[in-house]
Write a structure and sequence with these properties.
Layout: H1 7-11, H2 17-25, H3 29-51, H4 54-70, H5 82-114, H6 122-138, H7 145-156, H8 161-168, H9 172-190
Helix pairs in contact: 2-3, 3-4, 3-5, 4-5, 7-8, 7-9, 8-9
Length: 193
């Protein structure tokens, strides 16, 4: 195992988020993986409660962990725990996203009022929305059962990859692959790049 790997992986001891964060501050990628596995569902859950949008919540969660990796040296265990530090970053970023979104909507509304056209075609938009809604309902049904279960546990159950693997009694790598492949298939089915 390389010097950048953790002893915890070798002796199977469970490390606290605080200990992992201190190792992340030293640049240990394996500690970051363990921290992500331990905290991703909690961070995502908090962000989702604020944003109420899965796609934006996924983006913000990713931003939180990028910030945690880049600024891990700022973590001070004397001031509070790593979990609290990550959740504080998550809450701040989620609130910032809400404010940004609201400002954008307000700006769009002001512009839209100025550019309002009476000839707007509701029938076409309703037909498009109906087709997209139908596609969104049918897409998960086109996944294989294994992918559907793994995605449901990870995204709707809030379980980490490790917990999904334990619940499905499969290796963690297999759980991650099922989730990744299932999400890729959903993107393809929904026509999202």
């Amino acid at each position: 195992m390389s010097s950048n790997r953790l002893d915890a992986k070798e002796d199977d001891t469970v490390q606290t988020p605080d200990a992992l964060m201190q190792q992340v501050a030293l640049g240990h990628e394996a500690a970051f993986e363990l921290l992500y596995d331990a905290m991703a569902s909690r961070v995502f859950g908090l962000v989702l409660r604020v944003l109420r949008d899965n796609a934006q919540s996924e983006e913000v969660t990713q931003e939180v962990f990028v910030e945690a990796w880049q600024h891990a040296r700022r973590f001070d265990p004397v001031r509070g725990g790593a979990a609290s530090w990550l959740l504080t970053i998550a809450h701040r970023r989620a609130v910032d996203r809400v404010r940004s979104s609201q400002a954008s909507q307000d700006r769009d509304l002001r512009i839209g009022i100025k550019e309002f056209q009476d000839s707007y075609d509701d029938v076409e938009e309703n037909a498009i929305l109906h087709d997209e809604s139908l596609r969104a309902v049918q897409a998960p049904q086109r996944l294989n059962q294994a992918q559907r279960e793994a995605i449901h546990l990870a995204y709707f159950g809030g379980y980490t990859h490790t917990e999904v693997a334990e619940l499905l009694k499969i290796p963690v790598g297999t759980a991650k692959t099922r989730i990744r492949d299932g999400m890729n298939k959903l993107r393809e089915l929904m026509g999202v790049a």
